[in-house]
Amino acid sequence: MPFSRLNEAVRVKSSNIQPLEAALSLVSLPPLMERTHGAPSIRVGLIDGPAASDHPSLKAARVHDLHPVQFPSGSTQNFAALHATATAAILVGSRGQGVPSVCPGVTLLSRPIFTPWSSQASASPLELAKAIVEVTQAGVHVLNMSLSVEPGPRTGLIAVERALVYAASRGVVMVAASGDGRSINSTVITGHPAVIPVVACNLQGRPAQDANLGRSVGRRGLSASGDGLVNLSIDRAPRRFGGSSAATAVVTGAIALLRSLFPGATCEVVRRAVLRSAGPRTSVVPPLLDAWRAYEMLHATT
């Protein structure tokens, strides 16, 4: 069955199709992906670890490193490199290799914020603020963030808040992972009104067991599948990649496709369409992204 013929019932009852197809259909992405691969003029920022741009899935992609990182021997198997490479492949990897490859036609600007030796996706507030400003000044349209902020003085958190305000003022749609710590809270990132927090869910649309939830997440966030996504590791072996990081990349990719199809729409118009596409908000659990409905809303109003 072609992606474009998957109806609403299939989005909810996806047990009869492959996990990857089910994950994308859950947020009605396939018909949007059929319309476009994304425009090269649309720039997606990735604040993460150092992505291996020579990865087989990324060789044909437009990936530009704002801060190139040299990989010491053996470091490409470390968490930071694996996480960033898997995220980049979901966004701009080559289609047909078993990875989602949501928007392979766009330009990806990679801004590493943790080193190849990092064992977790965390950064100091001041370093994060600096990275947000840098990718904004590089002209990104959509920004993907899957990281936590290390504890620090209040001045650092204020710097992050100012950087987020600056990015929003320059027309950047910011998307951030809510995290997988099984907690009810928000961070300086997910609690910011200009940021779209993303919660991972299973293929039935229910929040993942370890999902971080909260008032700001439920009010301004979206859900997307963190299951059914398989990526190629740096050594080319299949590797599962899920959780809120994977779900965030799916949402970022959807927004990049929408910005490609509606280049005249402002950041706020696209952001509003994406959030309204998801339906009513009644709890700390955000509703599912409906990428195709967002497309129809933008098509009707622009």
Q: Care to describe what's here?
A:
This protein is 36% helix and 15% strand. With 302 residues, it is α/β, with parallel strands linked by helices. It has one domain (3-301): Peptidase S8/S53 domain (Rossmann fold, 3-Layer(aba) Sandwich), CATH 3.40.50. Helix 4 runs parallel beside helix 8 (243-261) and helix 5 (125-137) runs parallel beside helix 6 (154-169). The radius of gyration is 17 Å and the shape is globular. Residues 1-17 have low confidence and may be disordered.
Total domain count: 1
Shape: globular
SSE series? HHHEEHEEHEEHEEHEEEHHH
Q: Major sheet: size, sense and barrel closure?
A: 7 strands, parallel
Sum this structure up briefly.
The protein is α/β, with parallel strands linked by helices and about 300 residues long. The chain has 10 helices and 11 strands.
Topology readout:
Blueprint: H1 8-12, H2 19-26, H3 30-35, E1 43-48, E2 62-65, H4 79-92, E3 107-112, E4 122-123, H5 125-137, E5 142-145, E6 148-149, H6 154-169, E7 173-177, E8 195-201, H7 215-220, E9 222-225, E10 230-232, E11 238-240, H8 243-261, H9 267-277, H10 291-301
Parallel strand pairs: 1-3, 1-5, 2-3, 4-6, 5-7, 7-8, 8-9
Antiparallel strand pairs: 10-11
